[in-house]
Amino acid sequence: MTTTTITSRTGLTRTGRGGRKGTGRGSGPAPDRQNWGSTALAIFFLAIMLFPVYWMVNASLQPNGTTLETSWLPLKPDFTGYATAISEQGGNLGTSLVISLGSVALSLAIAAPAAYALAYFKVRGAGIVLFAILISQMIPGIVVANALYTAYNDLGLLNSIPGLILADSAHGIPFAILIIRAFMNGMPASVIEAARVDGAGHIRAFWSIVLPLSRNSLITAGLFTFLFAWSDFLFALTLTTTEAVRPVTLGIFQYIGAYVNDWSSVMATAVLASIPAIVLLVAAQKYIAAGTTGGAVK
Amino acid sequence: MSLTTDLSQAPPPHENAAKGMPGGGKAGGGTLDTVPAPRRRSRQRRERLFQWLFLVPAVVYMALFFGYPVVKNVVMSFQDYTTATFFTGEAPWVGLANYVTVLSSSLFSTSLLNTALFTVGSILGQFVIGLALAIFFQRKFPLNGILRSLLLLPWLLPLIVSSAVWRWILDKDSGALNRFLGDLNIVDTGVPWLTSTSLALIAVVGVNIWIGIPFNLTILYGGLQEIPDELYEAGSLDGATGWKAFRHITWPMLRPVVSVVLVLGVVYTLKVLDIILGLTNGGPANSTQTIATQSYALSFQEFKFGEGAALGNILVIISLVFAVLYLRASRRAVDE
């Protein structure tokens, strides 16, 4: 039943669109050619928008030194920038990876049960929790960092990986709760109720029915919490005071903080630090698209 | 198993009225009718306790990492909190002294103005370009989806990476932008994009616009897709096409999404720190210093945590004012 209505609606809209265009410029092969023209225009926009990304890759493949101007094309790719980047920032990349994975684990462990409670139980106070999550987005990171610094100093969490995992999750947890909850809202309660009637306890129903059903939203939330923690700069900057624990974002900042005389290794580090974003955009496009719209509007 | 994967692929619409029921009794309702009333009530209480347990970790986390910092920051802003505090443990109460120092400093008006210019300029640029691109991508053409998703890249990159790349592009002597402009004979000598007091803020705003376009594009595109085609058909019968169709159909229908985008944009832009620290570090001569960067500098470079907290609180208040305006506006929209 539902399928038929959907097809008939899309059918309607398609003829409607065609009709609107038709009145303007007649029919025939024209729309097709015009469409490829739009594609060309879109590629042009994309080229402008992604030029900085191209430039980063291009500059990372240039030989060292500032005297030479970066050439427009990496005709003779030189990998010394990458060699320097890996020897100087390899450890920082590893630190970032550990912190980001830790933040994903912590964020999902906290957000998934909370999202379930908010979506399914309708517990008293759920509205307050949701409101608090929205308000939390308004609190500037510097305010959080300012207070955390003093608390971390007392607790000995400065310059520690657990400290950064906990702090970085502040970027991800509110977002993860919202996105998983939005998904769980659409989950049929009857499935969970059936499981409960069959005698499954709360925790078992959650673990073996709710979580597998919400797989897609968990992946989306996990990918974004990874990106958030990986990109974190503020907490890396404020909650570390030594070189003991140094995420790569802070490594890049240190590079560009002083006078830069070796842009190729800075750009090589930047490329390495962009890999997660690029990989996710290409390999997990479906989830990324779900996250961008879901998180903002719902 | 096949059932679960199917469901996870395509969440079915709300088909169950049961979800609307208040919690507690839901699991009980049918099966527990035979249980005597007092025991049922204690079961319900246990049930509710169990439900709360799912929420507790999140509530604790939010309290520790959002609630506590806000409260602590308010307390600190009334104290003389410096590096000495870490050794002596003493932070003398100073009343409003921190606020007086911060507000009467000549830097405050500079950073307030910069914050306003940075926010308004960024939002305006991101929104206008994002909306134009969103409307453009409404067209049906080959590769539309792929190209649109690739446009997200600037938004997904770590902000500090974008800052580093743009610093190299905007470099006075060998940056790509100056070389490009030089090749076109638009400029003779390198433009000091990031090192001139009159240009630095413009350059920083430009970079922030570049970062924000994908977000605006994606959300506004989603909003445009929601507008039913029938409206345009009806409109075209009445002669509303092109600009008229935009003004009388697209814009009114898009308004709720527009307000969400703008408010989120303002709230996020007010907090921006990474881009400015990465590009100019607030310089040259404080020409790109905003309230957020100034708060950072006071706390973590001058170690006047009390003053940094005071300035941070002022930033929270500015954000809240926007949020309240937004809530009032959206309530009015709902009433309409």
What does this structure look like?
- The complex is a heterodimer of chains A (298) and B (336).
- Chain A has a single domain (80-297), classed as MetI-like fold (Orthogonal Bundle).
- Helices cover 79% and strands 0% of the residues of chain A.
- Chain A has 13 helices and no strands.
- In chain A, helix 2 (30-60) crosses helix 12 (263-283).
- The radius of gyration of chain A is 25 Å and the shape is globular.
- The two termini of chain A are 28 Å apart.
- In chain B, 72% of the residues lie in helices and 0% in strands.
- Chain B contains 16 helices and no strands.
- In chain B, helix 6 packs antiparallel against helix 13 (242-271).
- Chain B starts with a helix and ends with a helix.
- Residues 1-33 of chain B have low confidence and may be disordered.
- At the A-B interface, helix 1, helix 2, helix 3, helix 4 and helix 5 of A face helix 1, helix 3, helix 7, helix 8 and helix 9 of B.
Main beta-sheet strand count, sense and barrel state of chain A: none
Beta content of chain B comes to: under 5%
Number of alpha- plus pi-helical segments of chain A? 13
For CATH, the homologous superfamily of the largest domain in chain B is named as: MetI-like
Q: What oligomeric state best describes the polypeptide chains here?
A: heterodimer
CATH class of the largest domain in chain B: Mainly Alpha
Number of domains of chain A: 1
Which percent range describes the beta-strand content of chain A?
under 5%
Principal-axes shape call of chain B = flat
**Named CATH topology of the largest domain in chain B:** MetI-like fold
Count every beta strand of chain B, where a strand is a DSSP E run of 2 or more residues.
0
Low-confidence stretches of chain B: 1-33
Outline type of chain A = globular
Distance between the termini of chain A: 28 Å
Mean pLDDT score of chain B, rounded? 84
- CATH superfamily of chain A, please? MetI-like
Q: How are helices and strands ordered from N to C of chain B?
A: HHHHHHHHHHHHHHHH
